[in-house]
Amino acid sequence: MVRLRGVVFVLLLVPAAAWAAVFWSVTDDQGRQNWVLGTMHSEDPRLLEWPEALMKALGEANRLALELVPDVEMLERMQQAMRFDDDRLQNVLGAELYRQVVEILTTKYGLTEPAVDRMKPWAVALTLATPPPETGMFMDLMLSFRARGAGLDVVALETIDEQIDFLSRIPLADQVSLIRRTAADHDRYHEVFESLIQAYLSGDLARLEAISARQMEGLDEHIIRHFNEVGIVERNQRMIERSEAWLAEGGLVIAVGALHLPGEHGLLALLRERGWKLEPIY
């Protein structure tokens, strides 16, 4: 669920057409049927107009695996982790950047300045990287509701502490750099997200990566390397390993951020390496 805008990590080593879908059928010679869905953490209503093929798969499946299960316990743990215990944001950012962040988060996100001042830098960057919430009906949350309503078992491929660790391990100076970038670009977030949504709706994973890559231009190479090695390679390996037993049972829908799918370290490649046959659906 945790994603920063414009984070792309893997150079494609296969033709872009090989990744021209966000929803895939995953089968094997024994007749086991699973699926992989790339998602966007967005509440845009166009993302909730799910094609019939996805509805059919959810009707046939018995388990939905998300990055995280968006339940009360997870959300409370995330909120706790995002706050300083004994420091203040203004001590970290300096007066000018702090005032810029406060202006954005109070006027556009409805936060109070005391609440902003308690936020850790990575949490600020994470918040600024997504449009201000309006309905709260994010795609992964609605998938979870739909699956539970249909009687599916909803499981997590990661723990909240693992996702927090991925973000908190970014050196403090780099967290500040990410804040500076997301704050400076914030007036363009509608434009950027519209481009991402259009690429997603067309099933164009390569274009999603290209748009994201442009948003990372100018950041230090070691920041990009951290997101590549930890945010994609390590996380994808962990998610595929945790899904293996469920895949063997069949009836599994894996639904994770779309940028986890393509590339030589992507989930599609990892599934193929393990002998699964993948076919694009849409």
Molecular structure report:
The protein has 282 residues and is of the alpha/beta class. It has a domain of 181 residues. The chain is 51% helix and 11% strand. It has a six-stranded mixed sheet, with helices on both faces. A hairpin with a 5-residue loop joins strand 1 and strand 2. The chain is globular, with a radius of gyration of 19 Å. The chain starts with 22 loop residues before the first strand and ends with a strand.
Write the layout of secondary structure elements.
Layout: E1 23-27, E2 33-39, H1 52-60, E3 63-66, H2 72-81, H3 89-93, H4 95-107, H5 113-117, H6 121-128, H7 139-149, E4 153-156, H8 160-168, H9 172-184, H10 189-201, H11 205-216, H12 221-249, E5 252-257, H13 267-273, E6 277-280
Parallel strand pairs: 2-5, 3-4, 3-5
Antiparallel strand pairs: 1-2, 1-6
Helix pairs in contact: 6-9, 10-11
